[in-house]
Automatic annotation (TrEMBL), chain A:
It holds the Pfam family ThiS. InterPro entries: Beta-grasp_dom_sf, Mopterin_synth/thiamin_S_b, ThiS/MoaD-like. This is Molybdopterin converting factor subunit 1. NCBIfam families: moaD (TIGR01682). Signal peptide: none annotated. CDD domains: Ubl_MoaD. It comes from the Bacteria.
UniProtKB/TrEMBL annotation, chain B:
Converts molybdopterin precursor Z into molybdopterin. This requires the incorporation of two sulfur atoms into precursor Z to generate a dithiolene group. The sulfur is provided by MoaD. It comes from the Bacteria. Belongs to the MoaE family. Pathway: Cofactor biosynthesis; molybdopterin biosynthesis. This is Molybdopterin synthase catalytic subunit. SUPFAM superfamilies: Molybdopterin synthase subunit MoaE. Heterotetramer of 2 MoaD subunits and 2 MoaE subunits. Also stable as homodimer. The enzyme changes between these two forms during catalysis. InterPro entries: MoaE_sf, Mopterin_biosynth_MoaE. It comes from Mesorhizobium zhangyense. One of its GO terms (biological process) is Mo-molybdopterin cofactor biosynthetic process.
Length: 88, 157
């Protein structure tokens, strides 16, 4: 499905632990949901494992909108991973 | 119902002037009877903090606050609504966020400003990092359960 590269963007301590602000990835076909994505990313190296150790706390947005972890990724152009927000 | 209008949403590094923002909403109008403003400022945490660094998600920050503002306009009979959120390094005593809600009567303005702040705190993509007076980085501010609960209480109304 998602053969085209997907842009991943990271913020706050997720960005710091992964060690980059963004990257383009080619998602394998079996990565269908946000949960799948978090699991798949965890397997990409120690820094990802460290950032995504507790996937439940990671908030995700697809194309600038908040989504639940069960959300499907199909058609996503930009997926953002970040900790709970602390603005205001 | 009042005519619909576009809320004024700004994400900026620069400071804002509360009085100027009130005037921008209300000047030359005779239909506004109530203006409620909320300003959020940077605390020094009993002298320990030298600055807060606010990171944001450009594009989504505007989009998310616009969605929250649109919901406020739908729920209350507002005549004007402004939300400004700063990013970058902010020193204790400086402004971080401003909400201005205008209506014919006070209740709608109070409630809409309160609603906007509650949702903004738990849903607008901003993150605070502490810089300490001793030169160390205090780390990222933890999200508070109380802020999620504050936002959730609007759902039961």
């Amino acid at each position: 499905m998602t053969e085209h590269p997907t842009k991943l963007v990271y913020f706050a301590w997720v960005r710091e632990r992964i060690g980059r602000a963004e990257e383009d990835v080619a998602l394998p076909a079996e990565v269908e949901t946000v949960s799948d994505l978090l699991q798949w990313l965890k397997g990409r190296g120690e820094e990802y494992e460290n950032a995504l150790q507790y996937p439940d706390v990671i908030r995700v947005a697809i194309d600038h909108e908040h989504v639940e972890h069960r959300e499907r990724l199909a058609g996503a152009r930009e997926i953002a991973l970040f900790p709970p927000m602390t603005g205001g | 119902m009042p005519a619909s209008f576009q809320p004024d949403i700004r994400i900026q590094r620069e400071d804002f002037d509360v009085n100027a923002e009130i005037a921008r909403l209300s000047e030359g109008r005779a239909d506004i009877g109530a203006v409620v403003t909320f300003s959020g400022l940077c605390r020094d945490e009993a002298g320990a903090l030298s600055a807060l660094e606010l990171e944001h998600y450009p594009g989504m920050a505007e989009a998310e606050i616009s969605r929250i503002a649109a919901e406020a306009i739908e729920r209350w009979p507002l005549l004007g609504l402004t939300a400004i959120h700063r990013f970058g390094k902010i020193a204790p005593g400086e402004n971080i966020v401003l909400v201005v809600a205008a209506s014919s009567h006070r209740q709608a303005a109070f409630e809409a400003a309160n609603f906007l702040m509650d949702y903004l705190k738990s849903r607008a993509p901003f993150w605070k990092k502490e810089h300490r007076v001793d030169g160390s980085t205090g780390g990222w501010v933890d999200a508070k359960e109380a802020d999620d609960q504050a936002a959730a209480r609007w759902k039961s109304r």
